[in-house]
Amino acid sequence: EGDHTIHISVLNENSEVIQARRTRVTLIDTTNTPMALERTEPVNGREGVDPNQAVTVYFNQVIDPALVTIIVKESVHGLDYDLSNQKARGFTQMMPPELVEVHRDMEPVTGGLFYGPGNRFVSFHAERVYAYDARVYVEVMYGDETLERFQFQIKPLPTLLTGNVTDQLGTGLA
Question: pTM of the full predicted structure?
Fold first, then answer.
C-alpha cells in the first residue's frame, strides 16, 4: 500500500539502455474498501433490450460466490408470442407462433448464475425469455446487503409477416 515508482528499461544485446521509462503508481489495500458494483449490463433504465438478454453485474473486487444473490422480477401486460410449438422442430416443420395475452406483476424469474473468471462479475441467465415489452427489475445482494437495484425495458412486440411472392400473373415464385 502507498506510492511506488516503477522503472522500466529496454536493453540491447550488450545490456545498454535503449529506452527507459519511470512511472508512479499508488497501491490501495482493498480489504477496507466496501463491496460495490462498478457497472451493470443492461444499464439502469435501458429500453429496447432483447428478450433473451443476460443480466451481468461487475464488482469492484473479488467476490465470494456463496454470498451473491441476484433477484429478477418481471412485469408485463399485453401480447406475446407463444413459442412452445417451436421446440424440437426443424425449420420446415415449425408452425407459426400464436399471440397470447400475458399478465405478470413482479413475477419472480428463475434462472442460473454464471461466475466470470477471477470472480469479478456474475451473469444471471433466465430459464425462459422475457416477454416483449416487459419491465424487468433486478436487485443485487451481497450477503444480507443490497448493493444495487435497477430496471430495464424489453423491446416491443415485433410484427411477423407471412405471405407468398408471386409474379405479375399470380404464379408463386420459389
Answer: 0.74
